[in-house]
Design a protein that fits this description.
By secondary structure, this protein is mostly beta strands. It is built from 3 helices and 34 strands. The strands form 10 sheets. Strands 4-27-26-25 form a 4-stranded antiparallel beta sheet, with no helix packed on it. Strands 5-6-7-8 form a 4-stranded antiparallel beta sheet, with no helix packed on it. A hairpin with a 5-residue loop joins strand 23 and strand 24.
Length: about 575
């Protein structure tokens, strides 16, 4: 159930009626009392970054009908690939690094075509035996450990995909590789290009157990040559010490080969931050867009083994880049740096999953979602996600933690799920103006041990109610002027001859002199795992203008003191 307050609207289409707000409070309080007595959980307007509701996709939930086997680790990586099939809804690539198609642990990638509510409409698998992929995979390559949505680098109108195979043996044991997959709109592979120490024009030096391809991020056209570029994590690189880690910036050609590269590590690329042994810098990588406004894309890099505060709590480095891929400056975020005040514990592995989120709090600055996949609340290795609200300098101004029974998340998480191991910003699936978040939990046991799952989180954005109230306040003078103009005969009453100038002839005139069209939520109600919210509604058409995937039906509940109450229920 939801209650809506009726407001007036002037001829410019702006909501008006601050005086009605005070009059409605007693009725709202009475309604709240009735809800509480009925046992319905009632909460106030949720904070930006909290979860309104969630949808799980696994072997047993969400409409996903692909065949997962035990230990497939579906969800180890996720990437939003835009609207690949052209149905108006964003789609998702999901890695399953230990899939056994063609041989043991060769790996696979699933392309999920989504519905508005985050369930799966259909899918396409890409593996050693499916999806038109003609590349050669060997046992234990772990193809799918990372997936990265690229720009359309070959210019065919379809987005392309980079896939990490971290245990590929080109050049040496577990050196790693990246596959560039040129996709068709149905999710199959049109062609491919491998990047390793022996293929694809890459001349960087890798070493034993480097795990090149453990993470990646699309950088857009960093060098301005018209072709999208790619950042690749190399978390066990030994520059400066043992497994300190590195990131490679790959400048690509249109065929997916490498025309040049820049390494960022403890000893290269202009990076002056302090890395220690086993920091595994590069275990997570994501683009932040142009965070500091200098016209160059910036990068967030996870160091899951960083020991700030205690062993393996993890950290994230914000790297402000130059167009040549070197680092101009940096900002570290950890338990002890960068303004982050969240509580991390030993072994949380903060920084493994990373993704930017479009501005959730309305301050004009992108947010950053960070996984802490080994977070121990409420049980060991359950996992969690932190939403970091950033300043343009890369420091943290506020945060929200999402985990088991935290910040509105009501999904069931178990020990060892590693929720937060991968993250992807999906864009606005449901049309409410707020981006959704995909969260991998690749050790989830739905259907069998470690088959994996992906959660779609529908997040709260800017405080819509506060914004609506601001609009009402701003429109107060316009309303008063409207009333004064409408009461032309000066009798203090409005009749059919008294209209606000500029209104359409077919609009009804209410007792305040303006058309009744727009409503704002007064509070939200959550019942079990179903969340309902209608932000705005058209009273005359009885139709929500902005809605969550679960449709709402507005029912007229009476009128009093210039406001109206509606009930919003699931169809």
């Amino acid at each position: 159930m939801l209650l809506f307050r009726q407001s007036d609207q002037d001829d410019a289409g702006r909501a008006c009626g601050r005086t009605q707000w005070a009059a409605s409070r007693p009725l709202i309080s009475a309604a709240l009392l009735l809800l509480v007595m009925a046992g319905v959980p009632v909460r106030g307007h949720a904070a930006p970054g909290t979860v309104l509701f969630e949808q799980k996709n696994s072997a047993t939930e969400g409409g996903f009908t692909g065949m997962l086997d035990d230990q497939d680790a579906f969800g180890v990586s996720t990437a939003a690939i835009g609207d690949l099939d052209g149905d108006g809804v964003g789609d998702l690539a999901v890695g399953a690094l230990t899939d056994d198609d063609g041989g043991i642990d060769r790996g696979a990638v699933w392309i999920l075509f989504l519905n508005l509510d985050g369930t799966v409409k259909s899918h396409q698998k890409i593996s050693d035996t499916e999806g038109g992929f003609g590349g050669t995979l060997d046992d234990s390559d772990l193809f799918g450990y990372s997936v990265v949505a690229l720009d359309d680098i070959d210019g065919d109108g379809v987005r392309d995909l980079a896939v990490g195979a971290v245990s590929d043996d080109d050049g040496g044991t577990d050196f790693g590789a990246i596959w560039i997959l040129f996709l068709n709109p149905n999710g199959t592979v049109k062609s491919h290009q491998k990047i390793s120490t022996t293929e694809g024009g890459f001349t960087g030096e890798l070493a034993f157990d480097s795990r090149f391809g453990i993470a990646g991020a699309s950088l857009g056209d960093l060098d301005g040559d018209g072709v999208g570029d790619l950042a690749v994590g190399d978390a066990r690189d030994g520059d400066g010490g043992f497994k300190r880690g590195a990131v490679w910036i790959l400048f690509l050609n249109t065929d997916g080969t490498v025309k040049g590269h820049q390494k960022i590590s403890d000893t290269e690329g202009g990076f002056t931050g302090t890395l220690n042994d086993v920091d595994i810098f590069g275990v997570g990588v994501t683009s932040l867009g142009d965070l500091n406004g200098d016209g160059v894309i910036d990068l967030a890099v996870g160091a899951g083994g960083d020991d700030d505060g205690s062993k393996d709590r993890g950290a994230v480095w914000i790297l402000f880049l130059n167009p040549d891929g070197t680092v101009k400056s940096h900002q570290k975020i950890s338990s002890t740096q960068g303004g982050f005040t969240g509580t991390l514990s030993q072994g949380d592995n903060f920084g493994r999953g990373l993704t930017p989120l479009p501005d959730l709090d309305g301050d004009g600055v992108v947010e950053l979602a960070v996984g802490a996949r080994l977070d121990d609340f409420p049980e060991p290795r359950t996992g969690a996600v932190w939403i970091l609200f950033l300043h343009p300098d890369g420091t943290v101004k506020a945060h929200v933690k999402i985990g088991a029974n935290q910040s509105g998340f009501m999904g069931e998480l178990d020990s060892g799920d590693v929720f937060g191991g991968s993250l992807a910003s999906l864009g606005d699936l449901d049309g409410d103006g707020v981006s959704e978040l995909a969260v991998g939990a690749h050790r989830d046991d739905d259907g069998g041990a470690d088959r994996g799952a992906v959660w779609i989180l529908f997040l709260e954005g800017p405080d819509a109610l506060a914004q609506c109230r601001d609009e009402l306040d701003e429109a107060l003078l316009a309303l008063e002027e409207c009333r004064a103009r409408a009461d032309e005969d000066g009798d203090g009453k409005l009749d059919e001859s008294d209209r606000c100038p500029g209104t359409r002839e077919d609009q009804a005139v209410d007792d305040a002199g303006c058309s009744v069209e727009q409503f704002c939520t007064s509070f939200e109600v959550r019942r079990g795992r179903d969340a309902f919210r209608c932000l705005r509604a058209d009273w005359r058409n009885d139709e929500p203008l902005r809605r969550r995937p679960r449709d709402c039906t507005l029912e007229w509940k009476g009128e009093g003191h210039g406001w109206s109450a509606f009930r919003c229920t699931a169809r």
